Amino acid sequence: MQRAAFRVSVPEARLLPADSGREVVFAGRSNSGKSSAINVLCNQRQLARTSRTPGRTQHLVVFDIDADRRLIDLPGFGYAKVPKGMRALWEKTLPRYLETRQALIGVVLLMDVRHVLRPVEQQLLGWCSESGVSAHILLNKSDKLSRGAAQSARLEVERYIKQNSLRGASVQLFSALRFQGLEQAWTVIGEWLSLEDKADPGCGAGGSG
Ligand code: GDP
Questions:
Q1: Which residues line ligand 1 (CB under 6 A)?
Q2: Where are the domains of the chain?
Q3: Model-level pTM?
Q4: Domain 5-203 belongs to what architecture?
Q5: Using 50, 70 and 90 to split pLDDT, how confident is the model at 197?
Q6: What is the CB neighbour count within 10 angstroms for residue 207?
Q7: How many CA atoms lie within 13 A of 146 on its CB side?
Q8: In terms of CB atoms within 10 Å, which of 90, 104, 144, 155 comes out highest?
Q9: What is the separation of C-alpha 192 from the centre of its chain, rounded to a whole number of angstroms?
Q10: Which residue would you say has higher pLDDT here, 151 or 79?
């Protein structure tokens, strides 16, 4: 991930690079700390922010790790004033992308640990589960809560995952500010991006596995 470099920013999912190799998507409500998390995970101070220039906040931003692997930074959702195009992206394009994109291995979902499982986050987790896409939740800003309160937020999300039988979903505490939870997140994302278990480049990797 430290090699990740800005490639392109596109207004629609259909303009993304060709559907091959492996990609991991970062999603989250605006202000959840998604940019900060991408930056610390890639160990690059300005990676996410510099690419998301004003006027392009609704774009999908692509970062290449190498020729076969990339990260995709989705537009932050949950702005008070949601532009029409954004609502269309959320309600139509995103479920279709999750369902059909062969290269997509997993979604890293940033949540503010103090306000977990907002409706839009539950919706995304449901779509991931239905599409057989793994979701790893980073409960960010855990530095803002006591240890006990942070753990109960984590347990609440774990309970939700179990109760709703969300296959392939996992959760951890994280703090982009304090560099907490990096190892655990790297392990999950690293496994997703590892090309070793990809049988045949032609047959896609998005199966139920
Ligand atoms: P984005 O809109 O989701 O990309 O969020 P940003 O990365 O821009 O962060 C939003 C705000 O939350 C900024 O003021 C960050 O400094 C702050 N922030 C991000 N991560 C953390 C964290 O782990 N702990 C704390 N306390 N603040 C954070």
A1: 28, 30-36, 76, 140-141, 143-144, 175-177
A2: 5-203
A3: 0.91
A4: 3-Layer(aba) Sandwich (3.40)
A5: low
A6: 9
A7: 3
A8: 104
A9: 12
A10: 151
